[in-house]
Every structure is written in structure tokens, then in C-alpha cells.
Amino acid sequence: QVQLVESGGGLVQAGGSLRLSCAASGRTFSSYAMGWFRQAPGKEREFVAAISWNGGSTYYADSVKDRFTISRDNAKNTVYLEMNSLKPEDTAVYYCAAGSYMAVHTTLYDYWGQGTQVIVSS
User: Fold this and answer.
1) Which of 29, 40, 49, 84 sits a CA distance of 20 to 30 A from 90?
2) What angle do CA 98, 101, 107 make, to 5 degrees?
3) DSSP state of 64
């Protein structure tokens, strides 16, 4: 079992920045690829970013690849999402996920955090 807890969400004006954190416990953190997803009201959960188990590979949704950075610190059992140049359309609940493979599909992740809310005002 893996337990994931997101933090760092909040209210920010457009153009601002936030850093989300996801703290993991349970099974060995370094064994898992990690992903960030987000879900806005009335919309499906969408892929944001993913990182391989050793941090050697990353992948981003087109909408965020020039603004967001995913990273991980296996010694701290934590994955991060640095969000810069935030836009109102980034407003969503952001979820951290763990799985066997770096992927863009929610069905390929086994464990999920509770989510942290990000609101970007114009």
C-alpha cells in the first residue's frame, strides 16, 4: 500500500506561482512512477505531468509543459509540482498518483492522494 498526501494548494493571482508537494508513505516510494492530475468543476480528471521512478524521465500535458515542472526527492519520499505563470484555467483540484509506469491515463495509476485545491484568479 502507498499513502499519498498533497499540500501546497491555495489562491493565487494569474501570473503567480505555487509549489505543490506530495508526501508518500507505505511501500517504497522509489519503486513507483508518479503523476499529477487535475480536475476542474464539471470536467474529467486530466493528466498534468508524470515522472519516472528514478526521475530520469518526465512528461507534461501540452497545456502546462512550458510552465510547470515535476520533480521528486526519493530521499524525502516526496514529489513536487512547480507551477509558474498560472492562468485561471489552471484552477482545479490537483491530485498526486503513484503507479508502476509513467503514464497519462488515470487507469494506470494504483494509488491517489486526496487532492489539493488550486484557485487562480484573473
Assistant:
1) 29
2) 65
3) T
Give the span between the Cα atoms of 121 and 54, in whole angstroms: 35
What are the residues whose beta carbons fall under 8 Å from the beta carbon of 26, sequence distance 6 or more? 1, 2, 3
Number of Cβ within a 10 Å radius of residue 79: 31
CB neighbours of 94 closer than 8 A, spacing ≥ 6? 6, 9, 20, 36, 37, 38, 48, 81, 115, 116, 117, 118
| Residue 21 to residue 83: CA distance in whole angstroms | 11
**Distance between CA 55 and CA 40 in Å, rounded?**
27
Q: Name residue 112's beta-bridge partners.
A: 97
Place of cell 521512478: 53
Burial of 11-41, coded b for 16+ CB within 10 Å and e otherwise, reads ebeeeeebebbbbbeeeebeebbbbbbbeee
